[in-house]
Every structure is written in C-alpha cells, then in structure tokens.
Model the fold of this input.
Amino acid sequence: MLGFTPDLSALTAQTDNIEMVWHKYYPSLMTGSVDVDTILPKFNEELKLAGMNDVIQEVQKQLDAWRIGRK
Done:
C-alpha cells in the first residue's frame, strides 16, 4: 500500500472525536496504570460512538478505488 494516502477531509468531526477518545484512554492503557479488562471495552465502545466505523468504511472505499486504479 505504499503510496496510498486516505483523504479524511470529509470526516473531520469523526476524526476529531476519535482523537479525543484516543487521548483519554491511550496513555493509561500503554503505561499499564489501569485494568485493561475494564478499560479496553470502554475505549473500543467510545471509539465506535466517535465514528470509527465511518472512518474505517471510508478508508476501505478509497483503498479499493486506489487498488483498482493501479491495475
């Protein structure tokens, strides 16, 4: 996938929300200062609510189009 760069400009609300969730949970998860079994499900749920699935779907759509264009 060298050379592929997704355009997330239409998803700024989702990416902003995802970034806020990321900053809320990532440091404590990476330092081991929280119970992962408790916090990770909350992290994943908040990422979904923030629009992560929309971003994944859009990036996959762009990647599929990019691959077709390279054939």
Remarks:
- Residues 12-65 form one domain.
- The chain has one domain: 12-65.
- The helical segments are 12-31, 36-50, 52-69.
